[in-house]
Amino acid sequence: MMRDTPHRPYSVFVSGPAAPGLTVPAPRPPSASVAATSLGVASLLMEQLLDHSPAVVTHSLRVARHAARVASRLPGDPWRGRESEVYAAALVHDVGKINEPLDILLAARPLTAIEYACIKDHPFHGVALVRRYAAVSPLLEDAAWGHHEWWDGSGYPRRLAGAEIPAIARLVSLVDAFDAMCENRPYRAGMTPAVALLEIERGAGTQFDPSLVDIVLRHNLLRDG
Ligand SMILES: [Fe+2]
Fold first, then answer.
1. pLDDT-based confidence at residue 184 (cuts at 50, 70, 90)
2. Which of 3, 141, 177, 191 is at a distance of 20 to 30 A from 168, taking alpha carbons?
3. Is residue 46, in this structure, part of any structural domain at all?
4. In a domain, 5, yes or no
């Protein structure tokens, strides 16, 4: 798995001035005991996000539950002992949406091209927020930064491909898409879990890690929706 080096080209995006109206809020100073755990930091960030968009928090809670359940059922138990990190990483994947305007987040219609471009900034904002806490698992940063990358390299923001995409980001990408497809939106009804899984299967090798899709489908890891 490729990890970022200390001299990352994208640092200019997370350390430079925020765009007008997109100010990154100063975090509340956490106690040492809370900040020391990834779950504690994830909870703090969700508390802040709740003030901005409860809908994003409820989505994030479902994604975290899906991710933890899939991770715990994967053959070979690759995430053994890191269940809390997986849950926390999935929980914060969309925390950067705290800086997205509500009229875009709550739009009861498909987004315009400009609005979609604005939403695509949320991984930048998310990784900036997570990096404020030194004690957290690197999985949190990987999930916030990488959950919109596509297996074929056509995702965003870094256009990583294949195994360049951290494993946690590949997992969160899949369960995030599953939850989004099942969710009712003002302009469309949500899919049933069975139909959403067919869409996941269609995205194997393009949007999603094909081996992860194969395991999820073969072992019915999202059977409970
Ligand atoms: Fe996202």
1. confident
2. 191
3. yes
4. no
CA–centroid distance, 208 to ligand 1, in Å, is 15
Check which CATH number belongs to the domain holding 87 and give it: 1.10.3210.10
Q: How many CA atoms lie within 13 A of 144 on its CB side?
A: 29
Give me the residue label for tokens 């869409």. 199
Contact 174, 208 (CB under 8 A): yes
Rounded distance, CA 160 to CA 198, Å? 24
Domain count within the chain: 1
Asked, for residue 3, whether it belongs to a domain, the answer is no
Domain that holds residue 205: 12-23+31-218
Distance 70 CA to ligand 1 centre (A): 19
CA of 191 to the centre of ligand 1 (A): 19
Condensed to tens digits (0 to 9), the pLDDT of residues 54-77 reads 999 999 999 999 999 999 999 888
- CA of 174 from ligand 1 middle (Å) equals 11
Burial of 142 (0-12, 13-18, 19+ CB in 10 A): buried
